[in-house]
């Protein structure tokens, strides 16, 4: 009986030891098994209908910057450089931050500084400067609106210009969209302008410059583009 009892006890111990080893082995296998991966991409891509997490909103550079002759805000370039008709950044009170305007422009923080273009008309010809910036993240076929402010200002030895132009170009993919503003009766003040166009590619260019200046005198036209200036209409 004693020997059987010992054998029984040994048998029971062996069973528990085997079970413990099996459970330990299972635990190690479970610990080593990789956790299942969860792919959130497709789920996130389906949020809000067809919205994509990598989609970027349309954008255009702002015009605010350090006042100086010959410099523009980041993203803007002088696309028709001519020393006789410079471009640069001005303030609401002065040309290039140097020569006072005869009449200061009334506005807000967004119009405290802006880009200025110039032109001159003379017998047999004339010259005009022109600036542009790239509009990004467009969807071809969609319609967009850009809201800007434009103005004409003068110093003691210059004059107001008669009109200015805004253009939308599509990198030679389509005709130019052309918008002219006449400054008659609207000198020395900001004039809101809304430009509506249909995208033909993922990028386009907004251009601005003086269209008609006064005879035999230099004139200036200004453009102010603030944050969130562009929106998709459809």
UniProtKB/TrEMBL annotation:
Organism: Dyadobacter luticola
PROSITE patterns xrefs: PROKAR_LIPOPROTEIN
Name of the featured protein: CBM-cenC domain-containing protein
């Amino acid at each position: 009986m004693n020997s059987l009892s010992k054998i029984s006890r040994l048998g029971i111990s062996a069973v528990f030891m085997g079970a413990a080893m099996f459970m330990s082995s299972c635990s190690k296998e479970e610990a080593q098994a990789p956790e299942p991966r969860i792919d959130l991409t497709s789920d996130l891509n389906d949020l809000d209908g067809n919205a994509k997490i990598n989609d970027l909103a349309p954008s255009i550079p702002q015009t605010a910057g350090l006042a100086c002759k010959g410099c523009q805000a980041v993203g803007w370039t002088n696309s028709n450089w001519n020393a006789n008709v410079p471009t640069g950044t001005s303030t609401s009170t002065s040309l290039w931050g140097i020569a006072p305007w005869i009449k200061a422009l009334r506005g807000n923080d967004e119009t405290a500084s802006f880009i200025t273009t110039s032109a001159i008309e003379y017998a047999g010809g004339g010259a005009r400067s022109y600036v542009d910036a790239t509009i990004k993240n467009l969807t071809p076929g969609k319609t967009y609106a850009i809201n800007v402010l434009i103005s004409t200002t003068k110093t003691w030895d210059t004059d107001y210009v008669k009109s200015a132009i805004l253009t939308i170009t599509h990198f030679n993919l389509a005709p130019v969209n052309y918008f002219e503003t006449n400054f008659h009766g609207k000198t020395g003040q900001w004039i809101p302008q809304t430009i509506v166009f249909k995208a033909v590619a993922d990028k386009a260019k907004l251009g601005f410059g003086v269209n008609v200046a006064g005879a035999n005198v230099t004139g200036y036209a200004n453009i102010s583009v603030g944050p969130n200036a562009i929106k998709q209409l459809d």
